[in-house]
Amino acid sequence: MNLNPQSSKPVLVCAFGLLAAFFMPWIQLIGVGMSGYNLGQLGSYGNYAWVIPILAGATILLSFSGYNNRGVGAISGIVPLVAILYGLIRIAGEGGDRATQGVLEVAGHILSIGAWLTIILSVAIIISAAEKSPASPPGNRQPEA
User: Are 109 and 47 in contact (CB under 8 A)?
Assistant: First the structure.
């Protein structure tokens, strides 16, 4: 694979991970698990989950086409974090004054492996996208004339 020097291989790997995590169980409620693929059953908010594999796919396509994948990679990481945080706040919002503590309690009780991997990979892809690309190795420099 021939990536653009401005592209990041860790961003590409995290994008593949986000794509895979989308199809893993995200939520465990009353013994029933739902993957990102099935979140649409929860209503219109759940349908927005499809933005995650679309952005991950765009990151992968940009990586393989030789374009810089860092910008869309960062967006691919930010969107799921904001969406999961919004969902948890909305669910825990019923707790009133203890809503912040409620978010942590709800997360521990209902989030499954797919959601946790999405959170971890989202943070990793943001960090990878923000990392500066290394200077080209000495063997790849053009000779001066």
Answer: no
Tokens 């200077």 correspond to what residue?
135
CA distance 51 to 48: 6
Q: Where are the beta strands (DSSP E) in 30-126?
A: 32-35
pTM for this entry: 0.76
Going residue by residue through the chain, which has 145 residues, state the pLDDT in tens, using 9 for 90 and above: 445 556 778 899 999 999 999 988 887 766 677 777 777 676 666 778 888 999 999 999 988 888 888 899 999 999 999 988 887 777 666 656 565 666 667 677 778 888 889 999 999 999 998 887 665 455 554 444 4
Tokens representing residue 85 in the block: 């945080």
